């Protein structure tokens, strides 16, 4: 069973890779090795990225595949981008929301809700 841990289950500190091992030839390398960005994502985020790639980045298709709203798809993507870049996720501007509405990605109720959420921030 493969384990994908990026944080200690006890203290939540960041885990570092110290040993790389080849089971084929039984050689091991010790040192300080870097995790890649995928190690920082949980199982549901990895599945989201897998589906995102399979639908070739089409957020409307991803919405249909996952059975969630378009704004939820965009929020999940922004969250993952935030993890990868180590920056606060960027939220859509009112212009972005209106553009999504115009293109039919969201309905009027979703657009109003998204704009109201941005005003609260």
List the defining traits of the structure above:
121 residues, mainly alpha, 11% strand
Q: Oligomer, anyone?
A: single chain
Range of strand content: 5-15%
Helix content class: 40-55%
Which secondary-structure class do the elements indicate?
mainly alpha
On the 0-100 scale, what is the average pLDDT? Answer: 85
**Strands of the largest sheet, in order across it?**
1-2
**Low-pLDDT segments:** none
Element pattern in H and E = EEHHHHH
What about the largest sheet? Answer: 2 strands, antiparallel
> What is the rounded distance between the termini?
43 Å
Rounded Rg:
19 Å
The number of helical segments is 5
Question: Per the principal axes of the C-alpha atoms, what is the gross shape?
Answer: elongated
Number of strands: 2
Secondary structure elements and their pairing?
Layout: E1 17-22, E2 27-33, H1 43-54, H2 59-66, H3 70-85, H4 94-102, H5 108-120
Antiparallel strand pairs: 1-2
General description of the model:
This protein has helices at residues 43-54, 59-66, 70-85, 94-102, 108-120; strands spanning 17-22, 27-33. By secondary structure, the protein is mostly helical. It has a domain at 39-120. α2 (59-66) crosses α3 and α4 (94-102) runs antiparallel to α5 (108-120). The mean pLDDT is 85.
Task: Give a short overview.
This protein is mainly α. 48% of the residues lie in helices and 11% in strands. Strand 1 and strand 2 form a beta hairpin.
């Amino acid at each position: 069973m493969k384990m994908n841990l990026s944080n200690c289950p006890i203290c939540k500190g960041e885990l570092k890779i110290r040993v790389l091992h080849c089971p084929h030839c039984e050689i091991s390398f010790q040192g300080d090795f870097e995790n890649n960005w995928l190690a920082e994502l949980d199982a549901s985020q990895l599945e989201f990225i897998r589906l995102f790639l399979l639908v070739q980045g089409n957020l409307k298709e991803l919405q249909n595949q996952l059975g969630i709203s378009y704004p939820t798809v965009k929020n999940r993507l922004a969250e993952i981008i935030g993890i990868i870049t180590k920056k606060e996720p960027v939220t859509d501007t009112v212009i972005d929301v209106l553009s999504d509405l115009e293109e039919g990605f969201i309905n009027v109720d979703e657009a109003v809700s998204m704009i109201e959420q941005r005003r609260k921030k």
